[in-house]
Amino acid sequence: MAAAWCVLVFQALIILTGNYNFFNLLTMLICLFLFDDAALRRLFPARLASWVQRRAPQPGTAATTIAALAAFVIVPAGVNVVAQTVTGAGLPVAGTLSELVAPLMVVNRYGLFAVMTTSRPEIVVEGSADGETWREYAFRYKPGALTRAPPWNIPHQPRVDWQMWFAALGDFRQNRWFVAFMLRLLEGSPPVLALLDGNPFPEGPPKFVRARLYEYRFADGSTHATSGQWWVRAPAGLYFPQVSLADFVRARAR
């Protein structure tokens, strides 16, 4: 139960400081299995708790023995994983044990992002009717307008916004879906536009689209107080070149 509370508090702190969709809630739900019946009984109606107690089979000697043997394997292997994460080197004996049980995948870091980036590149998609004046496409959840506060999305997983973050860490050639996304914007596809936070071209699809890369960071307290900005950004280059529908037609003809 002590381990469960540690995980629950840790996951709650992550929920308060980052948007990881429903992953933290799933982790917290699994922790329920670490509490025994006596600890959970007060959370359920008395009749339901009594019925479960009568129906639930009691663990026998074999089950207890198997659980104890599993603990002798999982606990040292888990300690070794923690040591690897903190110090970069595992424990000699526990390291050997970890290698033996590795194919079973019962002990690992259990982290979506064991290694995180220290910068925040963001893709800003723009459209234009004349190739001179450009308007930005706003997304519902990812950073965009500098004065918009970071929204909450838990437990929803905004797939496009999520993929835009990953796409910014690489090149559009590594994210072929992004090329199709730009084509759909030129076509004014209603299902694709419905994924965004509004359409900057209500009069009709743009003739050109492009995507630029920016480095985003949170504005400091004084900047936020004076300007209302939540974000500060700096240009980091062109992510996707200016294209039109004619460019896609020519590319298909090759």
Could you give a quick summary of the protein structure above?
The chain is 46% helix and 14% strand.
How would you describe this protein?
It is a single chain. This protein has helices at residues 2-17, 23-30, 37-40, 46-55, 61-87, 92-101, 159-168, 176-187, 190-193, 221-227, 245-253; strands at residues 120-128, 134-136, 208-218, 231-243. The protein has 254 residues and is an alpha+beta fold. It folds into two domains: 2-104, no CATH class; 120-253, no CATH class. Strands 2-1-3-4 form a four-stranded antiparallel sheet. A hairpin with a 5-residue loop joins β1 (120-128) and β2 (134-136). The longest helix is centred in the first third of the chain and has 27 residues, at 61-87. The protein starts with a helix and ends with a helix.
> What is the terminal separation in angstroms?
63 Å
The helix fraction, in percent, is 40-55%
Name the strands of the widest sheet in spatial order. Answer: 2-1-3-4
Largest sheet: 4 strands, antiparallel
Overall morphology: elongated
Number of helices: 11
* Number of E-state strands: 4
Jot down its keywords.
single chain, 254 residues, alpha+beta, four-stranded antiparallel β-sheet, 11 helices
Q: What is the topological layout?
A:
Blueprint: H1 2-17, H2 23-30, H3 37-40, H4 46-55, H5 61-87, H6 92-101, E1 120-128, E2 134-136, H7 159-168, H8 176-187, H9 190-193, E3 208-218, H10 221-227, E4 231-243, H11 245-253
Antiparallel strand pairs: 1-2, 1-3, 3-4
Helix pairs in contact: 1-2, 5-6
